[in-house]
Amino acid sequence: MVFAMETNKPDDFIFSDFDRINREKFFHDQQALNRLHAFSSPENYLFTDEQYLAHESWVRTAVLKLGDLKGKRVLDLGCGHGMASVLFARQGASVTALDVSSGYLAEAKNRAFANGLQVNVLAACAELLPFADNSFDLIWGNAILHHLNLDFAQREILRVLVPDGKAIFCEPVSFSVLSRLIRSFMALTAIKKHTFDEESLTWTTLLHLKQIVPNLTWEGNQFLGSIPRLLRLPWLNGFFDRADHLFCRNFFCYNRLCRYAILELKKPS
Known about the structure:
alpha/beta
């Protein structure tokens, strides 16, 4: 495992960013440490594709946007527990799993090994990617952009993508008062723990990203679907998730109520 935080440091990267990155690293290392009790044997790292694809309402839809992965070079940006990396490797991709947390990278590495797959594991921050230009055909990120300094991260993402390459991100968003209230309530009730520095993407953030990547597209996910999660009634997830999908598809304004969004960025040729 290689740690490469300061590779190719741009002149305008400032110390406050390193402080933020260190706070994020500490938080997620603690999260990984708290998960260790669940992995007493290699069998605990095993999972099916369906278990990952169905674990949140946006995952399957977002993964399908990546297309055929066979032979593709894929960067799992902010890989966390590494389930996405394993899924992509199963589909024939050459996968690099990158995270700032060495604790989560250890879990991702063990998960790949237990599932009989090869995944390249690298410790680095997303704002200073230690890769040559045009290194990846595809980039995947699940709940990573809102932890980053996007002024640096968006530049690095585009730099390491090949021309016509694609990046798919699933991100918490605050496009409405309701989505902000839902996010705040989940944080207060410890349904979803947040780091000190993370901020959900706003409409202003999205418009700024679209200035850099004009062909950026997005779709909302999970508004009504937040209800059974707030009430801790998981058997109702499917019904409300299907309702969200129907309303998002037919009423564009409904997408702005959702608490998550799937972003698709394509690098110009």
